[in-house]
Amino acid sequence: MNRNDLRRQLECYVPVNEQEEKDLGQILSALAADNIFSRENEVMHMTASAWVVNRDFTKVLMAYHRIYDSWAWLGGHADGDEDLLAVAMREVQEESGLRHVIPVSRDILSVEILPVSGHEKKGHYVGSHLHLNMTYLVRADEEEPVHSREEENKAVAWFTPAEALAASAEPWFRERIYPKLIAAAEQYRKQLSD
């Protein structure tokens, strides 16, 4: 998948709420920037996240993120890769130690612009910026061993969707992001069981 494929996919994406509608328009506009897939764009850049569910969709994999001091979904920077599903899959493997992850669909599960406050990373200051994020639904075996990635997270664990929601210390994610991911994953579960 490349930038043009992503644009087509985003143009076909149906926002589930006003937040997605607004963010989608801004993301589509930002795709014209040459360096939008690179952290060299210090104002905003593309990221990809994964909502990782177990085989029967009863659990969600979360990592305890060091910078945000909260349980959170897994994901990261595109770093030049325009295939955001591949980015999400790679980030899941790197951040959790899982080796076998499978996309439930190649479709985008949700879109969101995530504000990132200035912070220290690896001894350097990173200024406040925006993550233009696509989230994908990914499936993994909860019996496969997981481990943290020391420089990014303190722990990785499976939660029920309700536990995942309660575990997040970030109000905006608890109120705006995770509920829509839980609902979207449930829709996929129903479609697959039909």
Q: What features would you describe in this structure?
A:
With 194 residues, the chain is of the alpha+beta class. The chain has a single domain, classed as Nucleoside Triphosphate Pyrophosphohydrolase (Alpha-Beta Complex). The chain is 34% helix and 30% strand. It has 5 helices and 10 strands; from the N terminus they run ααββββαββββββαα. The strands form 3 sheets. Strands 1, 4, 5, 6 and 9 form a 5-stranded mixed beta sheet that branches. A hairpin with a 4-residue loop joins strand 2 and strand 3. The longest helix has 23 residues. The two termini are 29 Å apart. The model has no long low-confidence stretch (mean pLDDT 93).
Mean pLDDT: 93
Query: How many H/I helices?
Result: 5
CATH hierarchy: architecture: Alpha-Beta Complex
Shape: globular
Domain unit count: 1
CATH topology: Nucleoside Triphosphate Pyrophosphohydrolase
Into which percent range does the helicity of residues fall? 25-40%
Identify the CATH homologous superfamily.
Nucleoside Triphosphate Pyrophosphohydrolase
Assembly category: single chain
Task: Quote the distance from N terminus to C terminus.
Answer: 29 Å
The Cα radius of gyration reads: 16 Å
Which regions contain 5 or more consecutive residues with pLDDT less than 50?
Answer: none
CATH class: Alpha Beta
